[in-house]
Design a protein that fits this description.
The complex is a heterodimer. In chain A, 68% of the residues lie in helices and 0% in strands. By secondary structure, chain A is mostly helical. In chain A, helix 10 runs antiparallel to helix 13 and helix 13 runs antiparallel to helix 15. Chain B has a domain of 187 residues: MetI-like (MetI-like fold, Orthogonal Bundle). In chain B, strands 1-2-7 form a three-stranded antiparallel sheet. The chains are: A mainly alpha, B mainly alpha. Chains A and B meet through helix 2, helix 8, helix 9, helix 11 and helix 13 of A and helix 1, helix 2, helix 4, helix 5 and helix 12 of B.
């Protein structure tokens, strides 16, 4: 059988090649596919566009065109626009609170150091013991900067710590202290010693069952009663303790999830190598268990950061409280919406940074 | 079961003559005794401190104050209350207000969160993006700040009663709250509400009969449609028979404020709005994850069996998605309930707020904080009891 020569390919002029219809490509194609793919979708798109046309122009007018940025309060009251001047005029008080004005570079420097350290720690390749020591040194330096008491740095009472530095302080120390406590609680809950297990279960369930605000009340009102006569503990430290106790219970539950996900073979392998309990946990179980729960742990840390705002209720001057006390000044009364939008943006930026970092970790791990 | 259990039980018994430290069982006993002794010592130390401090500051102890006259007014209450009533009744008012916020909030949150969660998965780019932005923004702002924001919007953004906004006839919005018309009192409305009970009972029996018939003969019965018809139809019939009143009780401006109709105070409005918008963002993420957890193959398999889209949703997708959705959803409901304690910051008289006033007046802080914790523990424990029951019910039965 003779083989036929391959049929010559039909020759095409490039100009004649059949292109997909214009309506399936480019902008039109994208719009058709993503905005008008069905009757319901077309309707939804039209409704949203109509709402945007109706509400966006007045909003933009209020926020940007008719607004005042660096004026006096009296000037604001004459127009209907947003009064961002409430922030620009009181920015230093909102951010630093009662910290002595001539020393405010210190909390600023401490916050810059904190953000720098956080940014440096983003890369997982840098997660080494050295980083831990860097953090310890960094936190100590921040503490010295805030507190002072060295030559050249006049001491600043912790009752004057307020504003954004206090928010960061409560959040960072809350997280740093709650994490190991939470891990210990989780291990206790998984322990085979009934007394220890029962104590951890009661602690975790009790704390998770009550609102943070009741713990803050406890720290503000009850805690002084627990102490012997003559001994008083600073209000900030008491609130900090409440936040740590609260966050630790939530971290414990997350870590427990990681411990339960470890296959039994890991425990048995460690035991067959002759490792004792602490060696098993330190070298085999915890490194794996803590790694798989990093994303939910970041979730807990984000809520801990947001929850620091609750100290307003026991009259600590965190970022939210300094803003409120600015707004209670008769001169600036009535511009709450603008001020709250501003601090909401601060919180939003921090939380967004944390959550997008958590998503990145989730992809990498 | 704990992974270490095998290890402990499998450990060989200690050889005679070894010290206590080499026997894991004895070592565990010693550890536990030490921890218990430490905890006991700490507890005893704190207790003695408390007792001396209370004595020194001559603060009364015990719950005797509950019977005393409270002497403070409460802005809104479900049950009748005046300043002459005792603390117990004041606290009951606070408790009911907490339950009210939590109940209404949870219902709206679940509906709204479901809609946003589905919107997040929409094939419409605009809808999906908007839902995504909503979730990201609302989750990133502390709920307390959101409460303050809405309260400020109510107080500073809305006009005085005389210049009330009137978006729909019979609805007035001003800085004293939201006022809306309700049907004027008439026995027919009570009849209509009462008619729901027989309708519900009938629907239940129809559902049971339909299930039995389907198991026996395979013939389906439109239970959902017939129950809806009953639940809507019977009250309508009852309302119509007893006179079909249409009179409305419309709020009207008298002096400085509105009277008549029903109203929502700015405090309640801000609290409800803040809690619902915040929690709905979390519920939306849960619903999205639940829907995505059901693989597409399930839909295709159901379609190849000849099921209709509605049947696929109700019989295939939802039961599997709910298994993933319900546990985190209940914890969000509990979060909403616990966050309602922030009412104290904007002046809505919930349980924490009333207890706080009580503590300030009587000085009995220990009892006050104790009661707050007990009330919220009650909510948590009932919720987790429900969760355990539900988990047992829906657990996958594996071979």
């Amino acid at each position: 059988m003779a083989t036929l020569p391959p049929a010559p390919l039909p020759e095409h002029d490039h100009a004649d090649a059949i292109r997909p219809p214009i309506v399936a490509l480019g902008v039109i194609g994208w719009v058709r596919q993503n905005l008008f793919s069905s009757v319901l979708n077309s309707l939804l798109t039209l409704v949203i566009l109509a709402a945007a046309l109706r509400f966006l122009p007045p909003l933009i007018r209020w926020a940007f065109i008719d607004s005042h940025w660096f004026s006096t309060a009296a000037a604001c009251r004459n127009d209907g626009g947003a009064c961002w001047s409430v922030i620009s005029a009181n920015l230093r008080f909102i951010i630093f609170g009662f910290y002595p004005p001539d020393q405010q570079w210190r909390p600023l420097l401490a916050m810059a150091l904190l953000i720098g350290l956080l940014l440096y720690s983003r890369e997982r390749t840098r997660w080494k013991p050295a980083l831990l020591y860097t953090w310890l040194v960094g936190l100590a330096v921040m503490g010295v900067l805030m507190r002072g008491g060295l030559p050249g740095l006049p001491g600043v009472e912790s009752s004057q710590w307020s504003g954004l530095p206090l928010t960061f302080l409560l959040a960072v120390f809350g997280m740093v202290a709650a994490y190991p406590l939470g891990v210990v609680l989780a291990l206790g809950r998984q322990s085979h010693m009934p007394v220890i297990r029962a104590m951890c279960v009661v602690y975790i369930e009790l704390i998770r069952g009550v609102p943070l605000i009741s713990l803050l009340f406890m720290s503000a009102i009850l805690f002084p009663l627990f102490l012997p006569e003559g001994l008083t503990i600073n209000k900030i430290i008491r609130a900090q303790a409440a936040i740590i106790m609260f966050t630790a219970a939530y971290i414990a539950e997350v870590v427990r999830g990681g411990l339960q996900a470890m296959p039994r073979g890991q425990y048995e392998a460690a035991q067959s190598l002759g490792l004792n309990y602490f060696q098993t946990m330190r070298h085999v179980i915890l490194p794996q268990a803590l790694k798989i729960v990093i994303p939910p742990t970041v979730g807990i840390l984000i809520s801990a950061f947001k929850d620091t705002s609750l100290v307003v209720i026991i009259a600590l001057y965190d970022l939210l409280k300094t803003t409120q006390s600015t707004l209670s000044n008769p001169v600036w009364m009535g511009f709450s919406v603008e001020a709250y939008i501003f601090i909401a943006l601060i919180y939003l930026v921090c939380c967004h940074a944390m959550s997008s970092y958590s998503r990145r970790l989730e992809r990498e791990l | 079961m704990h992974p270490n259990d095998t290890a402990t039980t499998a450990a060989p018994p200690a050889a005679p003559g070894t010290s206590r430290w080499q026997d894991p069982a004895k070592r565990a006993m010693i550890y536990q005794a030490a921890v218990m002794a430490l905890a006991g010592l700490l507890g005893w130390y704190l207790l003695t401190n408390i007792l001396t401090n209370l004595e020194r500051q001559s603060i009364a102890t015990g719950f005797g104050f509950l019977g005393k006259e409270s002497a403070f007014e409460i802005g809104e209450s479900i049950i009748p209350y005046s300043a002459a009533d005792n603390y117990l009744r004041a606290l009951a008012v606070g408790f009911l207000n907490t339950v009210k916020v939590a109940f209404i909030g949870i219902v709206i949150t679940v509906l709204m969160g479901t809609v946003i969660g589905i919107a997040r998965l929409s094939s419409n780019w605009l809808v999906a993006k908007l839902a995504g932005i909503y979730i990201e923004v609302l989750q990133g702002i502390p709920v307390l700040l959101q409460l303050f924001f809405w309260y400020a919007v109510f107080y500073e953004g809305l006009p005085a009663p005389r210049q009330s906004l009137n978006p729909l006839p019979g609805i007035f919005l001003n800085n004293r709250g939201l006022f809306f018309a309700v049907p004027a009192a008439h026995p027919a409305w009570n009849m209509a509400v009462a008619a729901i009970i027989p309708a519900a009972i009938l629907s239940y029996f129809i559902g049971r009969w339909a299930r039995q018939r389907r198991d026996r003969s395979g013939r389906p019965f439109p239970v959902a449609r017939s129950s809806t018809a009953l639940l809507v139809g019977l009250p309508l019939v009852a309302w119509w028979i007893s006179g079909a009143p249409t009179a409305m009780d419309t709020p009207a401006l008298h002096g400085f404020n509105f009277t008549g109709g029903a109203s929502v105070s700015p405090e309640f409005g801000a609290l409800l709005l803040g809690l619902v918008l915040y929690t709905a963002a979390f519920v939306a993420e849960i619903v999205r994850a639940g829907i995505q957890s059901v693989s597409h193959g399930q839909t295709e398999a159901a379609r190849s069996l000849g099921m209709r889209p509605g049947q696929i949703l109700v019989l295939i997708i939802l039961p599997q998605a709910l298994r993933v959705i319900i546990p985190p959803l209940t914890s969000q409901m509990l979060n909403l309930t616990k966050n309602s304690s922030l009412a104290v910051a904007i002046g809505f008289p919930d349980f924490v707020s009333v207890a706080n006033t009580t503590m300030n007046q009587t000085g009995q802080a220990i009892e006050g904080v104790f009661m707050i914790m007990v009330v919220y523990l009650f909510f948590s424990l009932t919720t987790s009891a429900f969760m355990n029951w539900y988990n047992r019910r829906i657990k996958l039965v594996e071979r």
